[in-house]
Design goal:
Helices cover 43% and strands 14% of the residues. With 275 residues, it is an alpha/beta fold. The chain has ten helices and nine strands. The chain has a single domain (4-274), classed as Divalent-metal-dependent TIM barrel enzymes (TIM Barrel, Alpha-Beta Barrel), CATH 3.20.20. Strand 8, helix 9 and strand 9 (245-247) form a beta-alpha-beta unit. It has a nine-stranded parallel β-sheet with strand order 3-2-1-9-8-7-6-5-4.
């Protein structure tokens, strides 16, 4: 069974019901020990106020979402995106987050150059390594499901993410974030998790519904879909991963329509039963 003391809530899970000023106290009152805020939520609340709320309610930050989105058609825009990643690193450091999650970015508009976009991702991460090292923040490359290749991430397998890590060197402050929603289908997943080893910086939980009604906004609660979460968790923990198990659910038709207290209660119950 999952270790419920390691349950964290990615605050996208209740983002439509409440902002950070409500979500942070609510999580704390329900016994959740760590949360992962998104940058737009931090901006809406204010970085200083977000830090105060976390401190006052005694919550840790499992990660900050998100950096990345490196590919762009023009050099000026690529530079702007790298600069934004530097700001994201500063925000993560201010909140005491050990990891900034990188959603690497899709093809630039009008482009069909997949390999070129992947090179932009590699180059972009390389440019911010020194900033991350100075801030004490590790960069977690999160491969997304292949259905997001065109618009969200040209890095779609754990093997590709690890290839980037290998190319940056063993001393680089970079690793991988494993989300079961994106990786459950991969027949090479066991071997790649073993390859990842100590470079696993985060582990995200939800489920894959059948049918899936929306490719982005119809993730399932753990236990409602087809992912063998305990098996994947076992593979991850065999690599001595003892970090947070972070529930991250985008659900426009279901969970975002429910009271946040109900959503969190069921997250806690399902994490104990199905993870």
């Amino acid at each position: 069974m999952a270790d419920t003391a390691r349950l964290a809530i990615n605050l996208a899970t209740i983002r439509e019901q409440c902002g950070l000023a409500e979500a942070i106290p609510l999580c704390a009152r329900m016994g959740i020990r760590a949360v992962a805020p998104w940058r737009d939520q931090i901006a809406a609340t204010g970085l200083r106020e977000t830090r105060r709320l976390l401190r006052d309610w005694g919550l840790e930050v499992s990660s900050v979402c998100r950096g990345g989105m490196f590919p762009a058609a023009e050099r000026t825009e690529r530079r702007q995106r790298i600069d934004d990643n530097r700001r994201a690193i500063e925000e993560a450091a201010t909140l005491g987050a050990p990891c900034l999650v990188l959603v690497c970015g899709g093809l630039p508009p009008g482009s069909k150059d997949l390999e070129g976009a992947r090179h932009m991702v590699e180059d972009g991460i390389a440019e911010i390594l020194e900033d991350a090292a100075s801030a004490g923040v590790r960069l977690g490359i999160e491969p997304l499901h292949p259905m997001y290749t065109a618009d969200r991430s040209v890095i779609v397998t754990l093997a590709q993410a690890l290839d980037i890590c290998d190319g940056l060197g063993s001393r680089a402050p970079v690793g991988v974030v494993l989300d079961v929603y994106h990786l459950w289908w991969d027949p090479d997943l066991p071997r790649q998790i073993e390859r990842a080893g100590s470079r696993i910086l985060g582990f995200h939980l939800c489920d894959w519904l059948v049918p899936t009604r929306d490719l982005l906004l119809d993730r399932g609660m753990m236990g409602d879909g087809v992912i063998d979460i305990p098996r994947i968790r076992g593979l991850v923990e065999a690599q001595d991963y003892r970090g947070w198990q972070e529930v991250e659910i985008f659900s426009a038709r279901d969970w975002w329509r429910r009271p946040p207290e109900e959503v969190l209660r069921i997250c806690i119950e399902r994490h104990a039963r199905h993870c």
